[in-house]
Amino acid sequence: DAGSYHSVFIDASGQLLTCGTDFELDDDDDDIVGLLGHGTDVTTLEVPTPVPSLAGTLVASVSASESHSLVLTEAGAVLSFGCGYNGSLGHGDQGDQHTPKVIEALRGERVVAVSAGEYLSLVLTEAGAVLSFGRGDFGRLGHGDNEDQHTPKVIEALRGERVVAVSAGGYHSLVLTEAGAVLSFGSGFHGHLGPGDA
Q1: What span, in angstroms and rounded, lies between the C-alpha atoms of 58 and 36?
Q2: Alpha-carbon gap, residue 24 to 55, rounded angstroms
Q3: Distance between the two ends of the chain, CA-based, in angstroms?
Q4: Which of 146, 154, 147, 89 is nearest to 116 (CA)?
Q5: Where are the beta strands (DSSP E) in 27-181?
Q6: Percent helix, strand and coil across the chain, each rounded to 5?
Q7: pLDDT digit string (tens) for 21-61?
Q8: What is residue 106's DSSP assignment?
Q9: Residue 20, CA distances (Å) to 43, 48, 51 in order
Q10: Residue 101 bridge partners (DSSP)
Q11: Rounded-to-integer distance, Cα 39 and Cα 104, Å
Q12: CA angle, corner 84, sides to 37 and 15, nearest 5?
């Protein structure tokens, strides 16, 4: 999967690899935020390189955004690394994470899909529940408010819907239900959400 400054891969043996830069580039300066997941000593990789801390862990899927990445293991655990701004890593704080770290709040949940957006994250459980965390302005987390969420929280408005896929964007998100309906939430500016208005 491609982020803005890094890429994440799963090789044929199920191992996680990354390449790119560990920096989040902005107009002010370059911030080292752990985008590669290789620790603080590795800041640039020109070829996909296995993430040492996950050696032997089978990875089912990955999702990269501009600022962070999510990893779903074959066992159903979710790990995150990168920039923790607004709680987008799900660890209960805003700290950056330079190596993949298990999201403790999701232990015991059987997660089947993850999606990393701009400072926000979505996870889908086997039971069809959707949880979100990170930056909450514009209602992009689906909780009916603009509050940041530092740990995964179930989107109550989707209870009763059997969700089968999730996608987190910059200012909005989409979910697909088992019945084939697409639901959207977040900023409607420029018609992102699809109901025909802004």
Answers
A1: 18
A2: 25
A3: 29
A4: 89
A5: 30-32, 44-50, 59-64, 68-73, 78-82, 97-102, 111-117, 120-125, 130-134, 149-154, 163-168, 172-177
A6: 10, 45, 45
A7: 987 655 555 677 899 999 999 999 999 999 999 999 999 99
A8: G
A9: 8, 8, 13
A10: 80
A11: 20
A12: 25
Question: What tens digit of pLDDT does each residue of 110-169 get?
Answer: 999 999 999 999 999 999 999 999 998 888 898 999 999 999 999 999 998 899 999 998
Give the predicted TM-score (pTM) of the model.
0.91
Q: Which tokens is 91 given? A: 């660890």
- Dihedral angle at the C-alpha atoms of 67, 187, 62, 19, nearest 10 degrees? -30
The two structure tokens encoding residue 45? 């990789």
